[in-house]
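Sequence, please.
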């Protein structure tokens, strides 16, 4: 299965992606990892992206699109991929549809994680991360045994600088303006399945599993 997973910051894309990969054996491709890999391997498109980044410029859609095509063309994606963090806008949505069809790895389904904005605020502002191992906690939903201390290694917990309501508002507005039109584009093609991601993680994954089993 070739899948896209979409949703705003705090909707649980990372958590659900890990479980989908484990259950279905598809390759998880996040845009951040993809950029780092292409640059480290010094692929032509990776070097082109690096030239923009080194000059403090945004990487153009055309370069990002080619990098995605390069990545999903690799042999490990033969049995399916899960794209996370792409497409971010309508132009990229058109590009991935064309590129995926061109290499005979067309998109089978778009998983759209839907969460109310106020729920996102609670999730984001309450998130705490271990400085040592990166384990994630929450002040309400997943508390450490000792406040401010990681259960795993005793590392100090901190709040990321962008885990504030002000920063979330900016990211959410950008998501609404830029990314939601791409979801509607795929919806018109009958590819989108909405998931209530405000439920607990187990129920969210159960809903995703039911949908994926129906389209396998």
């Amino acid at each position: 299965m070739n899948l896209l997973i979409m949703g705003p910051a705090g909707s649980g894309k990372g958590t659900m992606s890990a479980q989908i990969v484990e259950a279905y054996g598809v390759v998880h491709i996040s845009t951040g990892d993809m950029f780092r890999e292409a640059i480290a391997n010094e692929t032509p498109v990776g070097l082109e992206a690096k030239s923009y980044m080194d000059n403090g410029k945004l990487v153009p859609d055309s370069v990002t699109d080619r990098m995605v095509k390069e990545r999903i063309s690799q042999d490990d994606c033969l049995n399916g991929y899960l794209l996370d963090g792409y497409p971010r806008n309508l132009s990229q949505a058109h590009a991935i549809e064309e590129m995926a069809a061109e290499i005979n790895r067309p998109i089978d389904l778009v998983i759209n994680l839907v969460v109310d904005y106020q729920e996102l605020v609670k999730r984001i502002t309450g998130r705490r991360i271990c400085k040592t191992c990166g384990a994630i906690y929450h002040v309400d939903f997943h508390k450490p045994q000792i406040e401010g201390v990681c259960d795993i290694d005793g590392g100090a917990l901190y709040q990321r600088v962008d885990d504030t309501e002000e920063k979330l508002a900016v990211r959410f507005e950008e998501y609404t303006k830029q990314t939601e039109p791409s979801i509607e584009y795929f919806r018109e093609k009958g590819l989108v399945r909405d998931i209530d991601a405000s439920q607990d993680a187990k129920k969210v994954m159960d809903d995703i599993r039911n949908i994926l089993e129906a389209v396998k």
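The chain has two domains: 2-116+165-215, 127-162.
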